[in-house]
Fold:
Amino acid sequence: MVCEESWFPRIDRHLCTGCGDCITRCPTEALRLVAGKAALAYPELCTYCAACEEVCPAGAIELPYLIVKVPHS
Ligand code: SF4
Ligand code: SF4
Structure:
């Protein structure tokens, strides 16, 4: 079973400094600052491009990747 939520960027609010770099970089404007921390405000806009993960200087954003093993027939 695949949980779709696992495909969204995860933002660690404890690590986030609120610099806003990921928000500036996100090509689809899916991110916003909420109470001084980055948040995926519009997950439906996220294309999973990983730009936010690459730009974050605090290492606060992680994109989980799912590896599906296909059994041999
Ligand atoms: S993965 Fe890409 S589209 Fe999704 S929030 Fe990050 S920068 Fe925006
Ligand atoms: S780039 Fe990283 S530290 Fe800066 S607002 Fe985004 S998640 Fe927070």
